[in-house]
Automatic annotation (TrEMBL):
Residues 3-238 form the NAD-dependent epimerase/dehydratase domain. Keywords: Decarboxylase, Glycoprotein, Golgi apparatus, Lyase, Membrane, NAD, Signal-anchor, Transmembrane, Transmembrane helix. It comes from the Bacteria. The lineage of its organism: Bacteria, Bacillati, Actinomycetota, Actinomycetes, Kitasatosporales. This is UDP-glucuronic acid decarboxylase 1. Its cofactor is NAD(+).
Protein backbone atom coordinates (compact mmCIF):
# COMPACT_ATOMS: atom_id res chain seq x y z
CA UNK A 1 0.00 0.00 0.00
CA UNK A 2 1.27 3.56 -0.78
CA UNK A 3 0.30 5.94 2.03
CA UNK A 4 0.53 9.74 2.01
CA UNK A 5 1.22 11.07 5.52
CA UNK A 6 0.76 14.83 5.96
CA UNK A 7 2.68 16.16 8.95
CA UNK A 8 4.95 13.12 8.64
CA UNK A 9 7.95 15.12 9.89
CA UNK A 10 6.31 15.75 13.25
CA UNK A 11 6.22 13.78 16.48
CA UNK A 12 3.32 11.40 15.75
CA UNK A 13 3.70 11.53 11.96
CA UNK A 14 7.30 10.32 11.98
CA UNK A 15 6.38 7.36 14.20
CA UNK A 16 3.47 6.56 11.87
CA UNK A 17 5.76 6.71 8.79
CA UNK A 18 8.15 4.32 10.52
CA UNK A 19 5.39 1.87 11.52
CA UNK A 20 4.02 1.80 7.95
CA UNK A 21 7.47 1.24 6.44
CA UNK A 22 8.14 -1.53 8.97
CA UNK A 23 5.17 -3.52 7.77
CA UNK A 24 6.07 -3.10 4.09
CA UNK A 25 4.03 -0.07 2.96
CA UNK A 26 5.55 2.77 0.94
CA UNK A 27 5.20 6.23 2.41
CA UNK A 28 5.01 9.69 0.90
CA UNK A 29 5.62 12.15 3.73
CA UNK A 30 4.54 15.78 3.30
CA UNK A 31 5.63 18.45 5.74
CA UNK A 32 6.63 22.11 5.89
CA UNK A 33 8.47 21.73 9.23
CA UNK A 34 6.56 24.60 10.77
CA UNK A 35 6.53 22.58 14.00
CA UNK A 36 8.23 19.34 12.91
CA UNK A 37 11.91 18.52 12.80
CA UNK A 38 13.96 17.08 9.90
CA UNK A 39 15.82 14.95 12.44
CA UNK A 40 12.61 12.96 13.00
CA UNK A 41 12.77 11.46 9.51
CA UNK A 42 16.48 11.78 8.64
CA UNK A 43 16.97 8.03 9.23
CA UNK A 44 14.16 7.17 6.79
CA UNK A 45 15.51 9.07 3.77
CA UNK A 46 17.73 6.24 2.56
CA UNK A 47 14.76 3.84 2.45
CA UNK A 48 13.60 3.48 -1.18
CA UNK A 49 10.04 3.01 0.08
CA UNK A 50 10.12 6.47 1.69
CA UNK A 51 9.63 9.75 -0.18
CA UNK A 52 9.71 13.19 1.38
CA UNK A 53 7.97 16.24 -0.10
CA UNK A 54 8.52 19.66 1.42
CA UNK A 55 5.05 21.15 1.03
CA UNK A 56 2.51 23.34 2.76
CA UNK A 57 -0.65 21.25 2.58
CA UNK A 58 -2.80 24.35 3.14
CA UNK A 59 -1.70 25.40 -0.35
CA UNK A 60 -1.89 22.11 -2.20
CA UNK A 61 -1.38 18.39 -1.86
CA UNK A 62 -0.01 17.00 -5.12
CA UNK A 63 1.47 13.55 -5.43
CA UNK A 64 2.42 11.74 -8.61
CA UNK A 65 1.38 8.11 -8.94
CA UNK A 66 -1.14 6.03 -7.08
CA UNK A 67 -2.08 6.78 -3.47
CA UNK A 68 -3.94 4.05 -1.56
CA UNK A 69 -4.45 5.92 1.70
CA UNK A 70 -4.05 9.41 3.14
CA UNK A 71 -3.30 10.04 6.82
CA UNK A 72 -3.82 13.74 7.53
CA UNK A 73 -1.78 14.72 10.59
CA UNK A 74 -0.47 18.13 9.52
CA UNK A 75 -1.32 20.78 12.12
CA UNK A 76 0.43 22.59 14.92
CA UNK A 77 -0.58 20.58 17.98
CA UNK A 78 0.86 22.03 21.17
CA UNK A 79 -0.71 25.17 22.68
CA UNK A 80 2.35 27.42 22.28
CA UNK A 81 2.59 26.31 18.63
CA UNK A 82 -1.01 26.99 17.70
CA UNK A 83 -1.24 30.17 19.78
CA UNK A 84 1.80 31.47 17.90
CA UNK A 85 0.43 30.36 14.52
CA UNK A 86 -3.33 30.95 14.84
CA UNK A 87 -4.09 31.63 11.18
CA UNK A 88 -1.85 28.83 9.93
CA UNK A 89 -3.61 26.47 12.35
CA UNK A 90 -7.04 27.46 11.04
CA UNK A 91 -5.75 27.17 7.46
CA UNK A 92 -4.34 23.67 7.82
CA UNK A 93 -7.45 22.45 9.67
CA UNK A 94 -9.72 23.82 6.93
CA UNK A 95 -7.98 24.23 3.55
CA UNK A 96 -5.30 21.69 4.42
CA UNK A 97 -7.93 19.09 5.32
CA UNK A 98 -9.90 19.84 2.14
CA UNK A 99 -6.74 19.46 0.03
CA UNK A 100 -5.95 16.14 1.70
CA UNK A 101 -9.56 14.97 1.22
CA UNK A 102 -9.44 15.90 -2.48
CA UNK A 103 -6.25 13.87 -2.89
CA UNK A 104 -8.00 10.87 -1.33
CA UNK A 105 -11.06 11.42 -3.51
CA UNK A 106 -8.98 11.57 -6.74
CA UNK A 107 -7.55 8.15 -5.88
CA UNK A 108 -10.66 6.78 -4.21
CA UNK A 109 -8.43 5.95 -1.29
CA UNK A 110 -8.90 5.60 2.45
CA UNK A 111 -8.61 8.89 4.41
CA UNK A 112 -7.93 9.22 8.12
CA UNK A 113 -7.97 12.44 10.12
CA UNK A 114 -5.90 13.13 13.23
CA UNK A 115 -8.53 14.95 15.25
CA UNK A 116 -8.22 15.66 18.94
CA UNK A 117 -9.76 15.42 22.38
CA UNK A 118 -9.76 19.24 22.23
CA UNK A 119 -12.95 19.06 20.22
CA UNK A 120 -14.60 18.27 23.59
CA UNK A 121 -13.28 21.62 24.88
CA UNK A 122 -13.63 21.99 28.64
CA UNK A 123 -15.92 18.97 28.94
CA UNK A 124 -19.10 19.06 31.00
CA UNK A 125 -19.29 15.27 30.80
CA UNK A 126 -16.71 12.98 32.29
CA UNK A 127 -15.19 10.70 31.08
CA UNK A 128 -15.61 11.66 27.43
CA UNK A 129 -17.22 9.31 24.96
CA UNK A 130 -17.58 10.00 21.28
CA UNK A 131 -21.29 10.81 21.55
CA UNK A 132 -20.47 13.91 23.63
CA UNK A 133 -20.60 17.07 21.47
CA UNK A 134 -18.24 19.16 23.53
CA UNK A 135 -18.04 22.51 25.26
CA UNK A 136 -15.85 24.81 23.19
CA UNK A 137 -15.45 28.57 23.40
CA UNK A 138 -15.60 29.46 19.70
CA UNK A 139 -13.77 32.80 20.09
CA UNK A 140 -11.28 32.07 22.88
CA UNK A 141 -7.54 31.82 22.17
CA UNK A 142 -7.65 28.01 21.93
CA UNK A 143 -10.51 28.13 19.42
CA UNK A 144 -8.07 28.37 16.51
CA UNK A 145 -7.13 24.77 17.19
CA UNK A 146 -10.38 23.37 18.61
CA UNK A 147 -12.64 24.86 15.95
CA UNK A 148 -10.19 24.04 13.13
CA UNK A 149 -10.35 20.40 14.19
CA UNK A 150 -14.12 20.50 14.58
CA UNK A 151 -14.34 21.86 11.02
CA UNK A 152 -11.88 19.19 9.85
CA UNK A 153 -14.19 16.52 11.30
CA UNK A 154 -17.25 18.18 9.72
CA UNK A 155 -15.75 18.43 6.24
CA UNK A 156 -14.40 14.86 6.44
CA UNK A 157 -17.86 13.56 7.40
CA UNK A 158 -19.39 15.60 4.56
CA UNK A 159 -16.98 14.03 2.03
CA UNK A 160 -18.12 10.63 3.24
CA UNK A 161 -21.79 11.55 2.93
CA UNK A 162 -21.47 13.47 -0.34
CA UNK A 163 -18.84 11.46 -2.22
CA UNK A 164 -18.89 8.12 -0.42
CA UNK A 165 -15.22 8.60 0.50
CA UNK A 166 -13.90 6.10 3.05
CA UNK A 167 -13.17 8.42 5.99
CA UNK A 168 -11.95 7.57 9.49
CA UNK A 169 -11.67 10.03 12.37
CA UNK A 170 -9.31 9.55 15.33
CA UNK A 171 -9.82 11.80 18.35
CA UNK A 172 -6.37 11.66 19.85
CA UNK A 173 -5.88 12.28 23.58
CA UNK A 174 -2.56 13.41 25.09
CA UNK A 175 0.21 11.34 23.62
CA UNK A 176 3.86 11.43 24.62
CA UNK A 177 7.12 9.75 23.74
CA UNK A 178 10.46 10.15 21.99
CA UNK A 179 10.63 12.98 19.39
CA UNK A 180 8.50 15.40 21.36
CA UNK A 181 10.40 18.67 21.27
CA UNK A 182 11.71 19.49 24.75
CA UNK A 183 10.30 23.03 24.57
CA UNK A 184 7.02 22.26 22.78
CA UNK A 185 5.02 23.37 25.80
CA UNK A 186 3.30 20.04 26.48
CA UNK A 187 3.24 18.91 30.04
CA UNK A 188 5.27 15.69 29.68
CA UNK A 189 8.09 17.27 27.67
CA UNK A 190 8.19 20.34 29.91
CA UNK A 191 8.38 18.30 33.11
CA UNK A 192 11.10 15.99 31.79
CA UNK A 193 13.16 18.92 30.47
CA UNK A 194 12.79 20.81 33.75
CA UNK A 195 13.57 17.75 35.88
CA UNK A 196 16.70 16.90 33.89
CA UNK A 197 18.01 20.47 34.03
CA UNK A 198 17.19 21.08 37.70
CA UNK A 199 14.63 23.76 36.89
CA UNK A 200 11.39 23.97 38.89
CA UNK A 201 8.53 21.97 37.34
CA UNK A 202 5.85 24.46 36.32
CA UNK A 203 2.28 23.49 37.19
CA UNK A 204 -0.54 25.65 35.89
CA UNK A 205 -3.44 25.86 38.33
CA UNK A 206 -3.30 23.76 41.48
CA UNK A 207 -2.24 20.56 39.71
CA UNK A 208 -5.51 18.74 40.37
CA UNK A 209 -6.56 18.94 36.71
CA UNK A 210 -6.33 15.54 35.08
CA UNK A 211 -5.02 14.19 31.82
CA UNK A 212 -4.64 10.68 30.45
CA UNK A 213 -1.31 10.00 28.81
CA UNK A 214 -0.91 7.55 25.94
CA UNK A 215 2.48 6.28 24.81
CA UNK A 216 3.22 7.01 21.16
CA UNK A 217 3.65 3.37 20.03
CA UNK A 218 0.18 2.53 21.38
CA UNK A 219 -1.34 5.53 19.64
CA UNK A 220 0.30 4.70 16.31
CA UNK A 221 -1.06 1.13 16.50
CA UNK A 222 -4.50 2.69 16.85
CA UNK A 223 -3.99 4.94 13.83
CA UNK A 224 -2.84 1.98 11.74
CA UNK A 225 -5.86 -0.07 12.85
CA UNK A 226 -8.13 2.81 11.79
CA UNK A 227 -6.30 3.15 8.47
CA UNK A 228 -6.80 -0.56 7.77
CA UNK A 229 -10.50 -0.49 8.60
CA UNK A 230 -13.32 1.12 6.66
CA UNK A 231 -14.90 2.56 9.82
CA UNK A 232 -15.60 6.24 10.22
CA UNK A 233 -15.85 6.47 13.99
CA UNK A 234 -15.04 8.95 15.41
CA UNK A 235 -12.81 6.92 17.70
CA UNK A 236 -11.26 8.15 20.92
CA UNK A 237 -7.64 7.02 20.90
CA UNK A 238 -5.93 7.53 24.22
CA UNK A 239 -5.07 5.90 27.47
CA UNK A 240 -8.03 5.77 29.88
CA UNK A 241 -5.82 5.85 32.99
CA UNK A 242 -6.40 9.33 34.41
CA UNK A 243 -3.71 11.17 36.36
CA UNK A 244 -3.51 14.58 37.93
CA UNK A 245 -0.82 16.90 36.65
CA UNK A 246 0.71 16.90 40.18
CA UNK A 247 0.92 13.11 40.10
CA UNK A 248 2.72 13.26 36.76
CA UNK A 249 5.19 15.78 38.20
CA UNK A 250 5.95 13.41 41.08
CA UNK A 251 6.47 10.42 38.78
CA UNK A 252 8.85 12.41 36.55
CA UNK A 253 10.80 13.75 39.54
CA UNK A 254 11.16 10.26 41.01
CA UNK A 255 12.14 8.67 37.70
CA UNK A 256 14.81 11.26 36.90
CA UNK A 257 16.05 11.46 40.50
CA UNK A 258 15.56 15.20 40.20
CA UNK A 259 15.68 17.63 43.12
CA UNK A 260 13.64 20.18 41.13
CA UNK A 261 10.99 22.04 43.08
CA UNK A 262 7.42 22.54 41.83
CA UNK A 263 6.25 26.06 40.96
CA UNK A 264 2.60 27.00 40.52
CA UNK A 265 1.29 29.47 37.92
CA UNK A 266 -2.23 30.69 37.07
CA UNK A 267 -4.26 28.39 34.85
CA UNK A 268 -4.39 29.51 31.19
CA UNK A 269 -7.72 30.55 29.62
CA UNK A 270 -10.04 27.63 28.75
CA UNK A 271 -7.59 25.00 30.00
CA UNK A 272 -9.75 21.89 30.41
CA UNK A 273 -10.16 20.64 33.97
CA UNK A 274 -10.55 16.92 33.29
CA UNK A 275 -9.77 14.62 30.42
CA UNK A 276 -10.24 10.88 30.12
CA UNK A 277 -11.29 8.97 27.04
CA UNK A 278 -13.85 6.23 26.96
CA UNK A 279 -12.24 3.82 24.49
CA UNK A 280 -14.94 1.13 24.33
CA UNK A 281 -15.66 1.88 20.67
CA UNK A 282 -12.00 1.59 19.61
CA UNK A 283 -11.65 -1.58 21.68
CA UNK A 284 -14.74 -3.26 20.22
CA UNK A 285 -14.59 -2.05 16.61
CA UNK A 286 -10.85 -1.70 15.97
CA UNK A 287 -9.65 -4.28 18.51
CA UNK A 288 -7.33 -1.59 19.92
CA UNK A 289 -6.27 -0.67 23.41
CA UNK A 290 -3.12 0.81 24.93
CA UNK A 291 -0.56 -1.62 26.35
CA UNK A 292 2.32 0.48 27.62
CA UNK A 293 1.95 1.87 31.14
CA UNK A 294 3.15 5.31 32.18
CA UNK A 295 6.27 4.03 33.95
CA UNK A 296 7.58 2.19 30.90
CA UNK A 297 6.52 4.97 28.51
CA UNK A 298 8.18 7.65 30.62
CA UNK A 299 11.34 5.53 31.00
CA UNK A 300 11.71 5.42 27.19
CA UNK A 301 10.90 9.13 26.86
CA UNK A 302 13.34 10.19 29.58
CA UNK A 303 16.03 8.07 27.88
CA UNK A 304 15.40 9.93 24.60
CA UNK A 305 15.58 13.35 26.26
CA UNK A 306 18.67 12.41 28.32
CA UNK A 307 20.49 11.45 25.13
CA UNK A 308 20.13 15.05 23.83
CA UNK A 309 21.62 17.20 26.58
CA UNK A 310 22.58 19.93 24.08
CA UNK A 311 18.90 20.61 23.44
CA UNK A 312 17.78 20.58 27.05
CA UNK A 313 19.53 23.65 28.42
CA UNK A 314 18.22 26.05 25.79
CA UNK A 315 14.78 24.48 25.96
CA UNK A 316 14.61 24.84 29.75
CA UNK A 317 15.48 28.52 29.34
CA UNK A 318 12.76 28.89 26.73
CA UNK A 319 10.18 27.25 28.98
CA UNK A 320 11.30 29.39 31.93
CA UNK A 321 10.98 32.59 29.92
CA UNK A 322 7.52 31.70 28.73
CA UNK A 323 8.95 31.98 25.27
CA UNK A 324 9.29 29.27 22.76
CA UNK A 325 11.46 29.32 19.65
CA UNK A 326 12.05 31.81 16.91
CA UNK A 327 9.34 30.83 14.47
CA UNK A 328 8.00 34.02 12.87
CA UNK A 329 4.32 34.91 13.06
CA UNK A 330 4.06 35.19 9.29
CA UNK A 331 3.10 32.16 7.24
CA UNK A 332 6.03 29.84 6.50
CA UNK A 333 7.63 30.07 3.06
CA UNK A 334 5.19 28.26 0.86
CA UNK A 335 6.27 25.70 -1.66
CA UNK A 336 3.44 25.14 -4.04
CA UNK A 337 3.87 21.65 -5.35
CA UNK A 338 6.67 19.62 -3.89
CA UNK A 339 10.39 19.18 -3.61
CA UNK A 340 11.06 15.51 -3.07
CA UNK A 341 13.86 14.66 -0.63
CA UNK A 342 14.97 18.29 -0.15
CA UNK A 343 14.91 18.83 3.58
CA UNK A 344 15.60 22.35 4.77
CA UNK A 345 16.93 23.14 8.22
CA UNK A 346 14.45 22.96 11.06
CA UNK A 347 12.14 25.92 11.39
CA UNK A 348 12.63 25.62 15.12
CA UNK A 349 16.30 25.06 15.69
CA UNK A 350 16.44 24.55 19.43
CA UNK A 351 20.14 25.20 19.55
CA UNK A 352 19.62 28.62 17.98
CA UNK A 353 17.28 29.88 20.63
CA UNK A 354 17.43 33.61 20.85
CA UNK A 355 15.14 35.99 22.67
CA UNK A 356 12.05 35.70 20.56
CA UNK A 357 10.20 38.59 19.04
CA UNK A 358 7.09 36.55 19.64
CA UNK A 359 6.13 36.15 23.24
CA UNK A 360 4.38 32.86 23.82
CA UNK A 361 2.17 32.30 26.82
CA UNK A 362 3.65 29.97 29.40
CA UNK A 363 3.50 26.32 28.54
CA UNK A 364 0.18 24.75 29.27
CA UNK A 365 -0.69 21.24 30.03
CA UNK A 366 -2.33 19.86 26.99
CA UNK A 367 -2.05 19.35 23.27
N1 LIG B 1 0.48 14.59 20.24
C1 LIG B 1 -0.72 14.65 20.78
O1 LIG B 1 -0.88 14.42 21.98
C2 LIG B 1 -1.92 14.95 19.93
C3 LIG B 1 -3.18 15.01 20.56
C4 LIG B 1 -4.30 15.28 19.80
C5 LIG B 1 -4.20 15.45 18.43
N2 LIG B 1 -2.98 15.39 17.83
C6 LIG B 1 -2.92 15.63 16.37
O2 LIG B 1 -2.00 14.77 15.75
C7 LIG B 1 -1.32 15.46 14.70
C8 LIG B 1 0.17 15.39 14.90
O3 LIG B 1 0.51 16.01 16.13
P1 LIG B 1 2.00 15.99 16.71
O4 LIG B 1 1.88 15.87 18.17
O5 LIG B 1 2.82 15.01 15.97
O6 LIG B 1 2.44 17.48 16.39
P2 LIG B 1 3.75 18.01 15.61
O7 LIG B 1 3.71 19.49 15.69
O8 LIG B 1 4.96 17.31 16.10
O9 LIG B 1 3.47 17.52 14.13
C9 LIG B 1 2.67 18.21 13.22
C10 LIG B 1 3.41 18.23 11.89
O10 LIG B 1 2.59 18.90 10.92
C11 LIG B 1 3.44 19.75 10.14
N3 LIG B 1 2.62 20.81 9.58
C12 LIG B 1 1.91 21.77 10.24
N4 LIG B 1 1.28 22.56 9.36
C13 LIG B 1 1.61 22.09 8.12
C14 LIG B 1 1.26 22.50 6.81
N5 LIG B 1 0.46 23.55 6.58
N6 LIG B 1 1.76 21.80 5.76
C15 LIG B 1 2.57 20.73 5.98
N7 LIG B 1 2.93 20.32 7.20
C16 LIG B 1 2.45 20.98 8.26
C17 LIG B 1 4.45 20.26 11.17
O11 LIG B 1 5.62 20.79 10.58
C18 LIG B 1 4.73 19.01 11.97
O12 LIG B 1 5.75 18.23 11.41
C19 LIG B 1 -1.87 16.89 14.70
O13 LIG B 1 -2.86 16.98 13.71
C20 LIG B 1 -2.46 17.04 16.08
O14 LIG B 1 -3.53 17.96 16.08
C21 LIG B 1 -1.84 15.16 18.55
Amino acid sequence: MRVAVTGGGGFLGSHLCEALLRRGDSVVCLDNFSTGDPENIAHLLSDPAFEFHHADVSVSVEIRGRVDAVAHLASPASPPDYLRQPLETLAVGSRGTENALRLALRHNSRFILASTSEIYGDPLVHPQEEAYWGNVNSIGPRSVYDEAKRYAEAVSAAYRRTHGLSVGIARIFNTYGPRMRPHDGRVVSSFITQALTGEPLTIYGDGTQTRSFCYVDDLVRGLVALLDSSEMGPFNLGNPVERTVSELAEIVRAMTGSASAVKYHPLPVDDPGRRRPVITRAREVLGWQPEIDITEGLRRTVAYFSARPDRLGASAAAIRGGQDDTVPLSAPAITAGTTPQAIPGPATAVTDLAPSAVSVPPSVSDS
